[in-house]
């Protein structure tokens, strides 16, 4: 599984800091989800919250 979060953030002109604020998490958590390992370890609930915070579908956050 490969993370597409950086691409999604760039397309929406969002910063990791803003996404972290929306989710109520540390910026380091958002950074971790931009990595392939981090996105693979994220729970479905986390992915759903992340998708809502950036305005996309869960499937847009990664590629197989």
- Mind telling me which CATH architecture this is? Orthogonal Bundle
**N-C termini distance:** 5 Å
CATH class: Mainly Alpha
SSE class: mainly alpha
Strand count: 2
Helix amount:
55-70%
* Unreliable stretches covering 5 or more consecutive residues: none
Number of helices: 5
Output the CATH topology: 434 Repressor (Amino-terminal Domain)
Secondary-structure element order, N to C: EHHHHHE
Mean pLDDT: 98
* Radius of gyration using CA atoms only: 10 Å
Q: Total domains, how many?
A: 1
- Biggest β-sheet strands, sense, barrel: 2 strands, antiparallel
Order of strands across the main sheet: 1-2
Into which percentage range does the β-strand content fall? 5-15%
Explain this structure to me?
By secondary structure, this protein is mainly alpha-helical. The chain has one domain (2-55): 434 Repressor (Amino-terminal Domain) (Orthogonal Bundle). It is 61% helix and 6% strand. Helix 2 (16-23) packs across helix 3 (27-33). The longest helix is centred in the C-terminal third of the chain and has 11 residues, at 44-54.
What does the secondary structure layout of this molecule look like, with pairings?
Blueprint: E1 2-3, H1 5-11, H2 16-23, H3 27-33, H4 36-41, H5 44-54, E2 62-63
Antiparallel strand pairs: 1-2
Helix pairs in contact: 2-3
């Amino acid at each position: 599984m490969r993370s597409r979060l950086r691409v999604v953030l760039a397309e929406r002109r969002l910063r990791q800091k803003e996404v972290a604020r929306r989710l109520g998490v540390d910026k380091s958590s958002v950074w971790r989800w931009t990595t392939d390992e981090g996105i693979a370890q994220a729970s479905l609930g986390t992915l759903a919250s992340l998708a809502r915070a950036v305005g996309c579908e869960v499937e847009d956050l990664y590629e197989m």
